[in-house]
């Protein structure tokens, strides 16, 4: 028997796609019944507090835990000495990777603290308040060292050295001496000098951006129980149960098969909760105490000492002819990685000119360590910063040539089959189609609404691209005795995967989503599924669900053949019904058939994973932003905002819109108000939601969305990655809108009121 | 440590409990009464995840001491549904997808319920103003505002 | 959190007796500042005395001697009362700006005053109305003009065991208008980078300003009055030009610092802008 696998969605109609189904996990969440990490307490659990460095850079001279250990109620204390020291193996931390030795050191500092808040010890006690008091009684002797938080300063020869053995690697070999530069990567093609010579107009600018945090509302909270028999149970607050399991195995020296990870609801992650941070500490404490240990971080700990996104210094130079040919594009990107190497500067390099085909290009990327928390993935890591810099420069270039900004982009846009700055060929993409759609749109063409305050107004656009990723997703479909269907997945549901999966299963099985029940299993309940990251869950999971669904139908056909008294090849399944060919009267619905078959003792079960060779389907989005700027204070108010995004094939418009809106608003906060502020000792001055300013409902207009569909090439109904592209273009669009409104080009993020005010003052001199 | 015996009504049920003077209402609800629907997001009144009603007024429970609840009526997210039937506010949020991860949602349930109790016909700007104390990082607030508008309509029809 | 005891007396007398005891005794109204400070160990306490069961501290009324705001009355209640009553527009506006609606429901205006942050949003509005702080302690009562109430950032002139009982604001004449504006990077939730409350009284027969009061937030160790600006404006026929000059003079009363929320220069500029804007609003309100 063969079944047709739909690999390309062009022109095909999908009954269950494009439908807005009620969010399946909604009821538990609006009633407060959904269980998040801090809501779960294992029987007999201890509560732990982490001891952190108060200094941005310091050598640990000694740690005296005796007073803490002597306290009543304290049952375990740990330092780096309690962790395995010779760790090996790969770790999977999602889109921003880290070497395992560095990760171990990040989780619990061994010889040095490399940022304020770096964990150096932890205490578990019967009560959290006892643990907090015990943590205060741990005596640490420090040798305080000078700190450096700025990546350019960190590159200087005489900068404080974070790692004695860190030698920069680059195409030309290794550096002569250790420094804070971890790596220098290069890319590009042709001869940019020649390209600039051939240009009629050249624009060059240097931009500076600050660290920002993913801002998930739920602080990390996890429980680990290391049993006496060596088994480890983890109630996790993680984006990937299986990667966490593997990471724990490598970090703790315990077999994967002995570790069970049970995912709880995750209160936002956006890439950051792929890095095991709290679980290994809870595990070691649990091992020492012989009881489950629960750790819940405070907001201050989250801001100071989890994994924000890199701050950067980026120089961009672009040249074009009068008729709009992009002759040369060059960039030098310097990203701060925090205390250990591995910023997403390579991604910055990959994305900065991704939407265009400059005749000549050169990109230099520097990964630099700084005394700041080691960065983690944040929705399209590296792309938002790179795109702000690239698009701001391109916008200026278009204006200087005198060409419409979208026409200029269309003229130089990347198309299917073109290649990127690192020579990778684009699979099917519709960037030109998206640009043309925006160009023709009402949002782009209607006049900018006049300001009620009489302030200057303006409009800007920005386009961003993200490669998206591929991981393994698995799904198991079972038919129940009532003919209803169970779909078990391994993917942690961050935003609504369960709802979309129900639709895909319903589509494949020819039934309604209401008859499908989806749940996420722990690591014992389903085969391997990678991190819910890289915008790839819907895409890969759809293929896995599709394959499992096809198998289920085949199994049912075989069973129904017996009932119909025909050979299996003569059983049809169409319109939700099984029937023997040429005998319409024999029609039996899926539900009835499922019930009949399973009640008779046959199990209908199918498990499948997506093809590992499946290609990623790039995502790209374009933002149109209208602003008004208070000329007396520099305050920028976003008055209208629309995000256009190509999602390939839209399964659930509500879910897609939700991702678009959420990501866009994170980009808006990145553009206007969010930043880490450090003093000259490397200490964070705004580690609370009072002064780390994320947008509130009052700061924003409605976030309009337009969903485009240029199906991706292969494997999964044409679905593209959805989650990440939305965050990429907003700062660029807003920067361009400010330029349109008041004629100043902002070279720093965030474009906070005082900075805009100063820029306006400087430009009027 | 000073302990206080208090009588407080939570979601219509009277509790007589011994609390420490230094506990917050938030931790009392979560750890003592096991009502974990109300969340801790920031510990200092800047995010609204811990919003409950105290005598009908929305308040950040992380900034209320446990003994202050003595003699007061507290409403948490667990008290909004009626024997399992979602309130119009709750139902409107699910229907309109005014939530994704759900962590900020209990706070928004209380804030919205309080807002509509006070002002049954809020404008979009009034909604945004009264919800400015509740941070959401997943939705961008668009569908939250629409959920509140829908909830207002449902309540006004009823 | 320090280890403190908690009491909730039901009479002012018992509260004052508790507060007079040796040790660090902290009065508690809405708690939105105090509890945050205790949690982060920025303030200490041996005893917390909850004032919210004391009837006279929860009372707000307007009578012959003016507007009386009990020190434990919440921002929300003050906002609703002054919005309905009229005459105190700046105060009505300020009380809707303190934090979020959840903070306003609990946080009291009296507490905002006693917390004495230079950035407090309600204080300029109270200053321009020439509020008087009525205090009480076990040893007696005092009346302190609010402008004399502040000693430094976070410091009042209250002595140990002394609390703010109520704020009394004389009822303004019919020809008075007031306004409060602050500047923050977002639209809510932030601490004021700068704030200005303005009040003018104009004689309708001459069109001259008979009273001008301008108070500034976040630009000095305490909230301050812009006396030079007030003196200039009084006696003038208020127009756009006069407003501009007044605004320039108000800047002279600002001695801001540079901190994580803004630079000194920027704050001075904001004072100019906010003074101009609040005076313009006052003019519009009088029309």
UniProtKB/TrEMBL annotation, chain A:
Instruction: Report the InterPro entries cross-referenced here.
Output: Ald_Oxase/Xan_DH_a/b, Ald_Oxase/Xan_DH_a/b_sf, Ald_Oxase/xanthine_DH-like, AldOxase/xan_DH_MoCoBD1, AldOxase/xan_DH_MoCoBD2, AldOxase/xan_DH_Mopterin-bd_sf
Q: What is this protein called?
A: Molybdopterin-dependent oxidoreductase
Q: List, alphabetically, the Gene3D superfamilies matched.
A: Aldehyde oxidase/xanthine dehydrogenase, a/b hammerhead, Aldehyde oxidase/xanthine dehydrogenase, molybdopterin binding domain
Alphabetical keyword list: Molybdenum, Oxidoreductase
Q: Which residues form the Aldehyde oxidase/xanthine dehydrogenase a/b hammerhead domain?
A: 31-146
Alphabetized GO MF terms: iron ion binding; oxidoreductase activity
**Pfam families listed in its UniProt record:** Ald_Xan_dh_C, MoCoBD_1, MoCoBD_2
TrEMBL record, chain B:
- PROSITE patterns according to UniProt: 2FE2S_FER_1, 2FE2S_FER_2
Which GO-annotated molecular functions does the record name?
Answer: 2 iron, 2 sulfur cluster binding; metal ion binding; oxidoreductase activity
**Keyword terms, alphabetized:** 2Fe-2S, Iron, Iron-sulfur, Metal-binding, Oxidoreductase
UniProt domain 2Fe-2S ferredoxin-type: residue ranges: 4-80
Pathway(s) where this gene product acts: Alkaloid degradation; nicotine degradation
Stored CDD domains: fer2 (cd00207)
Classification via PANTHER family: OXIDOREDUCTASE WITH IRON-SULFUR SUBUNIT (PTHR44379:SF5)
Name this protein carries in UniProt? 2Fe-2S iron-sulfur cluster binding domain-containing protein
From TrEMBL, chain C:
Q: Name one Pfam family in it.
A: FAD_binding_5
Q: Which SMART domains match?
A: CO_deh_flav_C
Q: Which GO terms describe its molecular function?
A: FAD binding; oxidoreductase activity
Q: Indicate the segments forming the FAD-binding PCMH-type domain, all copies.
A: 1-174
* Keywords of this entry: FAD, Flavoprotein, Oxidoreductase
Read off the InterPro entries from this record. CO_DH_flav_C (IPR005107), CO_DH_flav_C_dom_sf (IPR036683), Diverse_Substr_Oxidored (IPR051312), FAD-bd_PCMH (IPR016166), FAD-bd_PCMH-like_sf (IPR036318), FAD-bd_PCMH_sub1 (IPR016167), FAD-bd_PCMH_sub2 (IPR016169), Mopterin_DH_FAD-bd (IPR002346)
What is this protein's name?
Answer: Xanthine dehydrogenase family protein subunit M
Q: From which organism does this entry originate?
A: Candidatus Lucifugimonas marina
